[in-house]
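> @MW can you paste both from yesterday?
MW: sure, first one:
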Amino acid sequence: MTLRFKCRTAYNANHWQAEIMSFRTQINEDLTQNLRNHLQENQVKIHEKALNYVKQKTGYEVNFPENCPYTLDQLLEINWLPEKS
C-alpha cells in the first residue's frame, strides 16, 4: 500500500465520518416523535431497502449484515460510529 493510498483512505474516512455527523444533526433537528416511531417500527424494512441499494451500487462487492446490528438510538447519535473490526 502506497503512502498516497493511505493518505487518501484516511481522508475519505474522515470525510464520510463528518458527512454522517452532518446528516445526523439535520435529522435530529427535524425528528418528531411520530417520525421516530415510524423509523423504529420500519427499521427492518428500511435496512433491507438500503442494503439492496448498496449491493446494486457496489456490484455486490460489499458484505453487510442482512439484519441491522444497530439500534435506532445508535444510528441517530451524532458522534456514534461502529467499532472497527
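MW: second:
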Amino acid sequence: MVKVGRWVIFVFVITVVFTLTHIPQVNMPSDLGVGNFDKILHAGAYGVLAFVGIWAVGFGRGWRGYVGLAMMLAGLGVVDELTQPWVGRTCGVDDWAANVVGIVVVLGVVRVAGGWGRGKEK
C-alpha cells in the first residue's frame, strides 16, 4: 500500500530540486562551475530524487518499478533542463547526463543492496 506521506515528501523534494535549479545564474555562486563540481551537484540532486522516489513507491516493487522511476526522473530532468533558460540559466545535455548518472547509480545500489526480486511485482 502506498503511503501518502511518502508521496508528499517525494513531491516536496522534487519542488526543492526544481527551485534550486531555477535560481537565476546571476544569483548563483560563481565557483559552482569550477571543474566538474556542477556535474557532481546534478548527479547528487537526482540521486536524492531517485532514493526518495523509490522509498515513496516501495523498495520491493521489482525491477520494473526501478526502470519506471528512472524513466520518469530522466524525463523530469529533461523538463528541468529545458525550462532553465527561462530564468537565465543554461540548458545542457551534459547536465542532463549527470542527472541520469545520479539516478542510475543510486537506483542500482539500492536495488543490489535490497536484493533482486524482493517483493512481488504488481
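> thanks! The chain has four helices and no strands.
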